[in-house]
Every structure is written in C-alpha cells, then in structure tokens.
Amino acid sequence: MKKLSVICLLVVGIIFISGCIDGEKNNSKTSTSSQPSINETSKETSASPSISIPSPSDNFSSAAVSDISQPKLIPSEFEINITSYYFVYLRDNHEIHENTTKGAFDLVEQNYVIYHLSIKNNGTNTLNFSINKLQLHARDQVFTPGDPGTKLQYIGKWLYVLSDIENENRLNNTILHPDQTLKGIAIFKVDNYTTLFDRSFSLSYNTTIPSTSIEKSLEALRVAEQFDYSIAFKTPPYDCDMWEDHSYDFPESKHPYVWANWVNRTVFESYKTIDEMSLSKEKPGNIPHTEIAYAVKVIPEQDLTVFHTDHSTVYEERNSGPYSIRSEGKYKGTQLYVVDNTGEEVFNKSIDPLRDDIGLAMLDDQTYRPFSENMPQMLIPRATIVHFSFNSIYGWSLDMRFTFNDQDIILDEQHNIILARYEFTKMVS
Q1: Any domain includes 153
Q2: Same domain, 106 and 182
Q3: What range defines the domain where residue 279 resides?
Q4: Which partner for 301 in 191, 213, 239, 246 could form a disulfide, CB atoms 3.0-4.6 Å apart?
Q5: Per residue in 10-33, is it b (16+ CB within 10 Å) or e — as a string?
Q6: 113-142: pLDDT as tens digits
C-alpha cells in the first residue's frame, strides 16, 4: 500500500513539473514573438518626419505667425533706373517773428539732391518698396530721403525747374505687384553747399544702382554750367537798367539794381557772393530781404526729335478797371517741341520771335544762329538735356529787385551745345 502511495506521488510530481516546463516554454514563445512587433513600430516612428505642434501661446509669437502683408524683399527682383536728377540750392534771410517774416543778417541755406526713379518689380512675387532703403552716398557720408511731403520754398510760377519738382510724384513706401512699375522722385537734403556742388554721389538700394549714363551726363552738365552764353545769345550776362546797359562783369557799384540776361554757374556765384556781401554792410534797422535759388535738372541719354510749330492767334485786350488798353492784331505763338524716340513729349517751350524776353540759338556749322521760321526738324541721338532755373531777390518793400531766369540746353553725345533757349523776367517792386 505504501509503495502504491509513493508511486502515485511520483506520477503527480512528474506531471506537475512537466506542466511548469511547458508553461515557461509557452511564455518564452509569446515573449519572443511579440518583440519583433515592438521593434518594427520603433523603426516606423523614427522614419517618419517630426511634426511640431505649437502650443496656444505660440500663436502670438512672431516666429509662429507669417505676416503676409509684408512680403520678403528680394533685391534682385527690383529693376531701378535713374531717369533724371536735380541739384537745388536755396538761400534766404527770412526770420519768423510774432507770425511775421522779417529780414535778418543770418543767411539760411538749403541743399537738395533729387532723383527721379523708375522702379519695376521683375519677380513673380509681390514685393515691398521701402523709401528708407534708398541711400545717397557722398564720399564718406550717407544720406536717406527726406519726408516725401517736403516742400521747397520758392516763388514757383517763375522758376520752371522748381515748379517741375513740385509736380512730380513723390516716392513712398508701397507694394509692387509683378511687372508693376513705380515712377517718382526721392528728395535728399545734403548738409552743405560744398557737398552739393562736389557732386560725388552714388545711389543705392541694398546694392549700388547702375549710373553709367549719370556719370556721362555730369560731364555734359559741367560743360553747360561753364559755357559763355554770350557766344550763343549775342548779349552779355548782366543788365544794369533792365534793357540796354549790359555788362560782361558784375557791376558791383550798381548793386542791387542788376538783372541777369542769362545764367550759368559763374552768374549764379556772382549774385550769391555779392548779395551776401551787400547784406553784411546794411544797417541793423534797415535789413533788406534777400533770396536766391539755383536749380538744375538733367535728363541723360535721350534720342531726341526737335521741331517747332506756329500758332497764329488773334488777341484783344479790353478796358480793365481804370485803364483803357486796346490792341488787336496777329502774333505768332511759336512753340519749341522736344520728343523722345517713343514719341513722348519731353518738354515744350515758347520761342515767340516777337518777345524780347525769350531767345533761341542753334549750332549750325560751328556757328550759333538765332531761331528762324525755317528751322528744320532736328534729330539728336544720345543727347543730354539740362534745364536751369535761377532767381535773385534783394531789397526792401517797394524797392526790391527781382531777376528770374529759365534756360533749356541740349547737348549731343560729344557734349556740344546744339540748342540753347533762354527766358528772363526782370522786375522792381
């Protein structure tokens, strides 16, 4: 009986031990079969790109929000060309005192360099043009544009160049769409007279703006400013009695009653110097008003056609107030027209041969001849246009001298003056 009990216990023990071993094997198989699934999942996760999901607070950070109203500027996609430029010098002795303007011994100068630009977006994206990224370099100085609303103080209706500036579109910050072109002027106020007339300027917008034509036209400007226009106009520059007493040298003894028949750099410098010298000699209780402006506009490298037209008009002046003035007849309102190679008018001016205050001279076989009705149409390739405006005012109320001059000069590619026109106004208040 005992043997039977022992045998039963041994059988049960063997069965129990065998079951445990089978259980471990099954567990081992289960563990082993599940491991590759984990590894495969790990591999898939590492192969996928990581995605960063910003938190709600990130929505207000500059990095998380793209400002679509301010497209990124791509400098190479702007095509900027200088189509014309101005140099302007202004000086006066105005002093504001209790809302009234009085003369003073102190002279205040303003010096401006102004560029007319054509700006085109050559890219496929909308771009921002920023006016403050324009920079004017003058040797070791850098200037940024002034307020687009800058007004130049002057008697506008008498001076063509300054009036032209006021009529120009002013460049400002703007968005340019693909293939869109923006045109207008940028005004730079430079620090002094020396900087203005040194004229060692370059313009940049992130990078330097090409200016080969500008450099060539500066030489044309130098020729136009230094030319003795008595050769072309057959009259000296200075007039001491408003019509007949003309002089080649500034008659200081007759200052301030000296008017300009025409203007170049020397004439301007003479008025600038002598008006200032005379002011310093005045008595404190008798300070005159003095003002001077000298402005040039240069349009480089134009293929020009020049011609004139005659407009016959009947005019009649009737009784006006206490005055009885009546005259009738015909006069020729002759106009000079200058157009570019696209047919667009560059300018037109009166050249009425019956007016003594206007004159036109043309270079013909190395000789300057006055305008005549049979003037042929002229073609001038790669020409430079220079416009001058000048005024000088000096004196007191009811005893003030005004002299105003406008001149239009066309030079050919070799910088010969082909055509020169003058117009002057002489007054005493």
Answers
A1: yes
A2: yes
A3: 228-294+301-307+333-383+393-429
A4: 213
A5: eeeeeeeeeeeeeeeeeeeeeeee
A6: 999 999 999 989 999 999 999 999 998 899
CB atoms within 10 A of CB 111: 19
Q: Is residue 190 situated within a structural domain?
A: yes
Same domain, 282 and 421: yes
CA dist 4 and 22 (Å) reads 27
Task: Report whether 197 contacts 331 (CB < 8 A).
Answer: no
- Total Cβ atoms within 10 A of residue 151: 10
Residue 415 has pLDDT above 70, yes or no: yes
Rounded-to-integer distance, Cα 108 and Cα 164, Å: 23
Distance CA 225, CA 222 (A): 5
Dist. CA 103–CA 91, nearest whole Å: 12
- Secondary element (H or E) of residue 348: strand 345-350
Q: Is there a single domain that holds both residue 93 and residue 233?
A: no
Closest listed residue to residue 184, CA positions, set 339, 80, 304, 73: 80
What are the residues whose beta carbons fall under 8 Å from the beta carbon of 255, sequence distance 6 or more? 274, 275, 278, 394
- The rounded percent of the chain whose pLDDT value lies above 90 is 58
* Averaged pLDDT for residues 25-47: 39
Confidence (pTM): 0.76
How far is the C-alpha of 93 from the C-alpha of 261, rounded, in Å?
25
Check if the beta carbon of residue 425 is closer than 8 Å to that of residue 158. yes
Q: SS3 of 158, please? A: helix
Q: What is the CATH number of the domain that holds 109?
A: 2.60.40.1240
Indicate the range of 94-103, 287-296, 373-382 predicted with least confidence: 94-103
Across the range 173-184, mean pLDDT stands at 94
Q: How many domains does the chain have?
A: 2
The Cα 204–Cα 142 span in angstroms is 10
Q: Are the C-beta atoms of residues 361 and 353 closer than 8 Å to each other? A: no
Q: What is the rounded distance in angstroms from the CA atom of residue 160 to the CA atom of residue 346? A: 14
